[in-house]
Design brief:
- With 349 residues, this protein is α/β, with parallel strands linked by helices.
- It has 12 helices and 12 strands.
- The strands form 2 sheets. A 7-stranded parallel β-sheet has the order 3-2-4-1-5-6-7, with helices on both faces.
- The longest helix has 19 residues.
- The N and C termini lie far apart (45 Å).
């Protein structure tokens, strides 16, 4: 029996009021040809988020593909609720191409990622990436949540919650587990607040993370879907306090396609991409390269300065022509600088 292609899952985390539902609604309306499914775990105002999303249901994400987990914080009810829900989504006909999970604002993302190591799940699902939403004004002010009282009320309403973690530590766990951070409501924070929030996130992150400002949930889906982070295989890089316990909408992003000749040293290409991402604020790099003497093409994926690569399929009869798509915020795309970073004769550091 042929191996089944794993269904990618994007985990969307962030406190109540950070904009998770708004983001998911935008992704549902711009699915990039993918058939989506959504798991909603916001509770307190039981059913509100699920109803909002079901009212937006479209052919690529019908209402039956939207499931709610209202029995408590997802990181504390994994076995009872989460695993059966994922199994129910995988049993849909047709199967979803991509699953979005909106966690409760108090959910610790790492226990959820560990659930994807369950035998019945691991062979059929992969965590495409963890997206953390952060309210820029709240982070800059050091309170982290938009409405602390509402979060406290949410905590009190959840009988299943088995951790009483301070908001600052939940925020740190969300950032530590993330592949990308979306800084929401930047207009309310103002330029100074946004810079302060960026500094807080940089200080909390265990590694450099791409941080993108997002207003009204509008972000190019290419930025947050298709990260291919395989987060379930990358747990050590995601520390936790509880370890051991439409086109006009996308004007803010530009992409450039770079043709690359056959290479001899994949490690050098990876180092150059990582350095380029750091130096030029590149958000994403996707593509493939031809390696001299290798019949398979080299698939390359980068999220910020984190670069993954693997040989994925034979070139066969196709021309051995490498190509990379580089995506950045519009004022950071400089094709000449990108080409220089990739092809300059000086070795990459």
């Amino acid at each position: 029996m042929a191996d089944l292609k794993k269904i990618p899952v994007t985990v969307i985390t962030g406190f109540l009021g950070s904009g998770k539902t708004t983001l998911i609604r935008h992704l549902m309306q711009n699915p990039q040809g993918k058939r989506l499914a959504v798991v909603v775990n916001e509770f307190g105002d039981v059913g509100v988020d699920g109803e909002i999303l079901k009212s937006c249901a479209i052919p690529d994400c019908p209402a039956e593909n939207i499931m709610e987990l209202a029995n408590g914080c997802i990181c504390c009810t994994v076995a009872d609720d989460f695993i059966p829900t994922i199994e129910a989504l995988m049993a849909l006909d047709p199967q979803p191409d991509h699953i979005l999970i909106e966690t409760s604002g108090l959910a610790l993302p790492k226990p959820l990622l560990k659930a994807f190591d369950w035998p019945d799940i691991r062979s059929r699902i992969t965590v495409d990436g963890v997206v953390a939403l952060a309210d820029a004004e709240a982070v800059a002010a050091g309170r982290f949540a938009t409405d602390v009282a509402a979060v406290d009320k949410q905590r009190a309403a959840d009988d299943s919650l088995d951790h009483d973690t301070p908001l600052s530590e939940v925020f740190e766990d969300q950032v530590s587990c993330a592949d990308i951070v979306l800084l929401t409501k930047p207009d309310l924070a103002g330029p100074d607040g946004v810079e302060k929030a960026r500094a807080v996130i940089a200080a909390e992150a265990p590694r450099p993370l791409p941080v993108v400002e997002v207003a009204e949930g509008v972000v190019d889906p290419r930025i947050v879907l298709g990260l291919e982070a395989a987060a379930e295989d990358d747990m050590e890089a995601r520390p936790s306090h509880h370890d051991g316990h439409d086109d006009h909408e996308h004007d803010d992003f530009d992409s450039v396609v770079i043709d690359i000749p056959e290479i001899t040293d994949p490690a050098d290409l990876v180092a150059r991409i990582a350095a380029m991402a750091r130096d030029q604020n590149i958000l994403r790099v996707k593509g493939y390269a031809a390696v001299a003497g290798k019949p398979m093409r080299l698939l390359v994926q980068a999220v910020g300065a984190r670069v993954r690569h693997q040989y994925d399929q034979p070139w066969g009869d196709r021309a051995r022509q490498g190509r990379l798509v580089v995506i950045a915020e519009h004022d950071h795309v400089n094709p000449n600088a990108i080409r220089a970073a990739l092809f300059d004769p000086e070795p990459a550091e």
